[in-house]
Amino acid sequence: MPLKYKLLTLVSAVLLMSSCSSIYMPGVPNTPMLTTKGEVAAGAHVSLRGNVNINTAYAFSDNLAAMVNFGAMNSERSKRDVKHNYFEFGGGYFKTFGPEDNRILEFYAGMGTASSKRVVRNFDDDVLISTDIYDADYTKMFVQANYSSKKTSKVRLLGVDFGLNYGTAWRLSFASTKDFKLNGVPQINEDNIFIEPVFFTRMVLSDQFQLQYTSGSNIGLRNRKFLNAGHSVFTIGAVINVGGKPKSK
């Protein structure tokens, strides 16, 4: 095999291993689309890998809100086990605008904690040759901006018209590990800054209940060995918005 192809194969393998051993896992950013005081938003989202995220938010005034988010993943496979959970909370500002007051801007900031454990098994001709165990907790702070619209487009499925809403969230996360161990041996803690753009589509089943598809990426701004951008966001879920007071006309 020519040298350049060997180098390409080696680089690809290193990148793949780095992705597999990534400690950081982004959750689904909270996009509550709040509009009025007293409104409650809640959403549940799950990825194909079994990563479950629960997001909640409450508007305690016509422009201020608080949020709580948490998630968990527990996956056991022949080559890799993943156990991950996180909790975060925050608060921020929201505002509706536009000719029909159906566009929404939201700005949030918050902090959280997470724990991550990964067991990576390496095989050669179906024979186990090594096992690496990555175990770490990390803390993070985040700032986030959401733009969404309740202006509804239409899609027709099985002879029924459903409304579609769209939105995007841009999150900047600052993460730092603590008590990081590799195979039981303490390691140097790492930190990183992640840019996390997310886009979502909601299918309107009623004024209160919608289905949501979310897709997004994860970009690490610092070159780190373990706390890197090894995971993206692809989930399906359901969201509810209840309890909001009608805006005065």
UniProtKB/TrEMBL annotation:
<keyword id="KW-0732">Signal</keyword>
<feature type="signal peptide">
    <location>
        <begin position="1"/>
        <end position="23"/>
    </location>
</feature>
<protein>
    <recommendedName>
        <fullName>Outer membrane protein beta-barrel domain-containing protein</fullName>
    </recommendedName>
</protein>
